[in-house]
Amino acid sequence: MIKQTFMKGALILLVAGIVNRILAFVPRIALPRIIGAEGVGIYQLGYPFLIVLLTLITGGIPLAVAKWIAEAESQGNAKRVKQIFRAAMVLTFALSLALTVLFVWLTPWITTHLMTDPRVFQTFRMMSPLLLIIGISSVYRGYFQGKHNMIPTAMSQTLETVVRIIFALLFAQWLLPFGLAWGAAGAMLGVVAGEIAGLAVLLLQFASDRRKLAEAAYPDTSCTQSVGSTSTVTDSGANPFTPLAARIPVMRKLISLSVPVTASRMIGSFSYLLESILTARALLAAGIATGAATAQYGALQGMIIPILLLPTALTYSLAVSLVPSLSEAAAKGDRITIHKRLHQSMRLALVTGAPFVVFMLLFAEPICRVLYNHVEIAPMLQWMAPAGLFIYMQAPLQAALQALDKPSTALMNTFLGAVVKLVLIINLASMPSLGIYGALIAINVNIVLVTVLHWVSVARFVGFRMNALDFLKVGAAMLIMGAASLFVMNLKALPALWLNLMTACFAGIVIYLILMVLLRIIDRYDAARLPLVGKWFRP
After folding, report:
1. For residues 254 and 486, what is the distance between their CA atoms, to the nearest angstrom?
2. Is the dihedral of CA 61, 254, 155, 202 positive or negative?
3. SS3 for 495?
4. Which of 453, 446, 481 is nearest to 356 (CA)?
5. Predicted confidence (pLDDT) per residue in 287-316, tens digit
6. Residue 287, phi-psi category: left (phi > 0), alpha (psi -120 to 50), beta (remainder)
């Protein structure tokens, strides 16, 4: 089994995350041109229900698996690792199957009574297989992450993205003649195809690793083996038919570890579901027609939010790699490593997210024109941009609370943020003078509030602090790079808008990186961790 360090694991997921984010923008750009903003709205309205059900299945179990397997690995307990994996797979499969049946049964009622646009019915039907597929995949990902092997996760995510792009666009185009609802459903069917491909990669990698481990442990498998040794080989394999009674104690601990995390994430997922329902109904109360409300919601969730979340390719990779690393350090009482990992994660999240915030503020209009040919949604991006930095720092903080066995704190922080957000949506989005921008204000307040609460909690538990001067340095670099980028953009030296935009962003990034080095935010040791070019900076 290949095992990576914290930074190497994070960088593997970062590279895969960047590739996936870039690839994922292909359907984000092409899909509105095929089914329009209204079709994207129908497609997006299905996601909140899917996320709630997936949170019940995958909200806490994969993290519990990664955390527990990491602890067992640090103790050299291979038998425990197998018990954890088998119990988690049985529990997840049963839960996924039960929720799939329930979801299919309730779909007609949900789409006619809860949703403001009944055209989501076809999309709901298409996404029902995702519960079982993603549930099984999540256990495998937790297994590999617990063993500090991020390569299978990265490979599966990349293939899933490629397959999803191809089939989402193809199915949307093929089914669009049957109506806008079917076009949106076709895009969701492409998501199913992508998840199947991602699961296939994990299954193949798992089988390959088990075979290599068996060969390493038992190189001589000839017929001269004794009966006792043959029995040992059989017992050590991943036998899926272990009696249920032997799995129950492991399942109980898995449930006890995963329930608080699931509850915390469930609050966020359920608030997202209520957000979609309440936003649509508030827009109707503001006097906006159903089709227009669906289109505005689609623009927000399907076009603006994906741009805002681009840098989370890094924060997700940091969070995934941070959980097993912090769990091991906490189990050993290694407070120095805990502080070191937290500081690395927070600094990287801040440094990489800052330039994106500048570009979204300054170039919202050209970005929306180039990507979607919908310049009217640019003000939404400008309103959301300042909250970006808080989003990018939130993931490592959330992962830290989970790794430090403080999921109940994360639960309370998320709950408070969700309550504030929903109350603000009801009051602001229903105002004709604000409309969808009332929902934007509510979402921004939620992001800032939850991030600040997470930060205060982590600081209280482990005494973690960041140097305030780092924030001042990054802020100064943002101002300088913004001025330089705007100057280059206003030159209009190239014939096409997208070329001028790319040139301005590139110039800004170069100046920003130079400032990061001069201000000592990035040093040679940080550069040495970079893939490909890192060897040139090592002593």
Report:
1. 52
2. negative
3. coil
4. 481
5. 888 788 888 888 888 889 888 988 776 666
6. left
